[in-house]
Automatic annotation (TrEMBL), chains A, B:
Protein name per Swiss-Prot or TrEMBL: Copper ion binding protein
The keyword Transmembrane is assigned to this record: no
GO MF annotation: an example: copper ion binding
Biological-process GO terms, alphabetical: copper ion transport
Pfam families documented for this protein: HMA (PF00403)
InterPro entries in the record: Cu-bd, Heavy-metal-associated_CS, HMA_dom, HMA_dom_sf
Tagged with keyword Metal-binding: yes
Keyword line: Metal-binding
Amino acid sequence: MVTSTYHVKGMTCGHCVNSVSAEVGAIPGVSDVQVDLATGQVTVTSESPLDTGTVRAAVDEAGYDLVEA
Amino acid sequence: MVTSTYHVKGMTCGHCVNSVSAEVGAIPGVSDVQVDLATGQVTVTSESPLDTGTVRAAVDEAGYDLVEA
């Protein structure tokens, strides 16, 4: 298992957290997504390393932006 | 038709607007709900005057608070 951490901006409430969790959680191989609303930190657990572009696309689909590392 | 205006606090994003709109829109007799996220103003169109307690309960169900007039 691999754990990766990202930062997402624009989330303002629990609904936003749910949207990001649902989209990122739907990426193949992802087994867990933890979102910290206050910091925008998104911790993703997956079977193998994730492509950042794939994560960015999922976050974008939810309506938010992945902050560049 | 009657148009009533309320103020709701705690809405931070479009998801919040959707939640409030859905709950208030489900009150019997309500035909339209317009929510202004920036001001928290909720304008409700209904067949007859609404009981404020009913509106408050719907807003509460959505997870927000009706501001006392």
